[in-house]
Amino acid sequence: MNPVVLNPETLSPEDVVAVARHHARVELDAETLGRVAESRRAVESLAGRERPVYGVSTGFGALAQRHIPHSLRAQLQKSLVRSHAAGIGEPVEPEVVRALMLLRARTLATGRTGVRPEVLSTYVDILNAGITPLVPEYGSLGCSGDLAPLAACALVAMGEGEVLDSEGNPAPAAEALTEAGIAPVELAEKEGLALINGTDGMLGMLVLALHDLENLLTTADISAAMSVEALHGTDRVFLPELFEPLRPHPGQTLSAANTLSALEDSAIVASHRDSTHLVQDAYSLRCAPQVTGAARDAAEHAYRVASRELRAAVDNPVVLDSGEVSSNGNFHGAPLAHTLDFLAIVAADVASIAERRTDRLMDTSRNQGLPPFLADDPGVDSGLMIAHYTQAALVSEAKRLAAPASVDSIPSSAMQEDHVSMGWSAARKLRRSLDNLAAVLGVEVSAAARGIDLRSLAPAPAAQAVLDLIRKQIPGPGPDRFLAPELADAKSLIASGDLVRAVENAVELGHTIPRRL
């Protein structure tokens, strides 16, 4: 994999995924290090003045009124990091921590934070060494940045705190740095604050979620087409003349095109095209592009938000072009929190309509001649009855996760921070919701594949590609068997992107956001 150059103007969402998830190497160039050194000189100039400067020669938050003498400023920065590394709970996923550290390093590289070049280099070295700070799940209110999570990373850069070893077990940070040949940083004025005051955790989780959501929405187009085939639905409602000319939402136009492509050359669909067995298909079939397409439009909006945030320099205070250091409120996570909550609503709705399609496959009054619950010997066998129960439980959980976090706010820091975004919480629940969606679609694909297998005619090439893939791990129809491993396999094939790639080898599909993401 090609290395990622840490240029704050060009770092892309795709780069974030490459470093966070695939451990791409990060490189710094001389221009970036020079820019960081220049802004540091401005901070050092201010540090010598008698007039207090927030973050340089004062306390923090509600304690900002105290002027700190030179002799205590190094201790001030250490104390800040140590006290703010106050999270609790299970460690967050290594890919989230790596995304968070990369994005914090990107902000340091802008030169707006006033840190020394060696602080930035230490973060890059930690990433390249594969060292993952232990970051507890709870501790960020999504305002003043992701304080506790970022402080846990800063603590490791100081040679303190804990990291996760290759097996995910806690280990002392000092030992990990020594083994990697990385010298701990000795923080100077403003540097502790610069390491913890950003929206990097929220943004990192948003970027990773967009990568996953694009794959899941394309999967939903495919699973909907498979359900249409299995249920003897029509493909005529996905014709392009029904979309762009009549209702020009780009997402639904794209999803309809994907669904139509996935149904192309289906002998099953062709067998009843002129039949009058149904005047209209149910909404869960007929309106699939409208729902998944709306989700695509939401994802496109979220991608724009993430792209803007990737060009930001979120810190407080920041070094301006004039050399002055100014306080600001850009650390507030509202733009990200609202977007993360929006995507959780989207994920719940896509999961909900997928479950409705699966429900139809179970019911002999609506499944067009398939056996009840797609069972081999109904009564003796229960088929996919409880697999559908599991899917329904996941959808119910997704609906609870769709309740917005960003409408909540608990004032903190003695009312200095009296309105917060809860964006970190929004990001955490979105990750769970997308994990649920992958499982929900896995159940639909399993059910639709079984329904197609029970038809006597050849499916579309797209569905055949899915069958060829999943039947390597998941047997076709037959007597009841232990289903949990099969559903886990179906989820894995979807979450990994293997299912979408298999279909793309058979038909052409479109995507809302850059496919490389």
Automatic annotation (TrEMBL):
<keyword id="KW-0369">Histidine metabolism</keyword>
<keyword id="KW-0456">Lyase</keyword>
<dbReference type="InterPro" id="IPR024083">
    <property type="entry name" value="Fumarase/histidase_N"/>
</dbReference>
<comment type="similarity">
    <text>Belongs to the PAL/histidase family.</text>
</comment>
<comment type="pathway">
    <text>Amino-acid degradation; L-histidine degradation into L-glutamate; N-formimidoyl-L-glutamate from L-histidine: step 1/3.</text>
</comment>
<dbReference type="GO" id="GO:0006548">
    <property type="term" value="P:L-histidine catabolic process"/>
</dbReference>
<protein>
    <recommendedName>
        <fullName>Histidine ammonia-lyase</fullName>
        <ecNumber>4.3.1.3</ecNumber>
    </recommendedName>
</protein>
<dbReference type="InterPro" id="IPR005921">
    <property type="entry name" value="HutH"/>
</dbReference>
<dbReference type="InterPro" id="IPR022313">
    <property type="entry name" value="Phe/His_NH3-lyase_AS"/>
</dbReference>
<dbReference type="Pfam" id="PF00221">
    <property type="entry name" value="Lyase_aromatic"/>
</dbReference>
<dbReference type="GO" id="GO:0005737">
    <property type="term" value="C:cytoplasm"/>
</dbReference>
<dbReference type="InterPro" id="IPR001106">
    <property type="entry name" value="Aromatic_Lyase"/>
</dbReference>
<dbReference type="GO" id="GO:0004397">
    <property type="term" value="F:histidine ammonia-lyase activity"/>
</dbReference>
<dbReference type="InterPro" id="IPR008948">
    <property type="entry name" value="L-Aspartase-like"/>
</dbReference>
